[in-house]
Specification:
4 helices, elongated, mainly alpha
Length: 131
């Protein structure tokens, strides 16, 4: 299970880095300028800018994954559940994003699979924590 923990730590680090890199420009430039993102993507959402989605992305996938990674590195009680929860949050984020955008692009497949794998690895690590 040591290898699984190391994979999880790396995966959470990657997720937090990509979430932060994606969220910060959305918060600083809420009208989508740095990524050349059209406001039309928000047409079927309750948002008028990318500010709120950027904040939610930062907290749900950036900060939460850092917290889960910290808990995993420290092997704190319940850390495996935080990994599984982060996987579920990421998968949920992607599903909601696809529904709102009404479009699927390759990163959606990647991050949905990533979330499902994190969930599965977190659940596998609960066995180690029990044993």
């Amino acid at each position: 299970m040591k290898i699984v923990r190391m994979i999880v730590i790396c995966a959470l680090g990657f997720l937090s880095a990509t979430a932060i890199v994606g969220a910060v420009p959305l918060i600083i430039y809420p009208h989508g300028q740095p990524w050349q993102m059209s406001q039309s993507y928000l047409a079927h959402s309750p948002f008028h800018s990318y500010l709120i989605p950027g904040i939610v992305l930062l907290l749900a996938n950036g900060v939460l994954s850092l917290f889960a990674m910290y808990e995993t590195v420290r092997r704190r009680s319940g850390y495996a559940w935080w990994v599984a929860i982060q996987g579920c949050v990421l998968a949920g984020w992607i599903v909601v994003e696809v529904i709102i955008l009404r479009e699927i692009i390759w990163p959606h497949y990647f991050y949905l699979a990533f979330g499902l794998v994190l969930t599965a690895l977190g659940l596998a690590l609960t066995r180690e924590a029990r044993g």
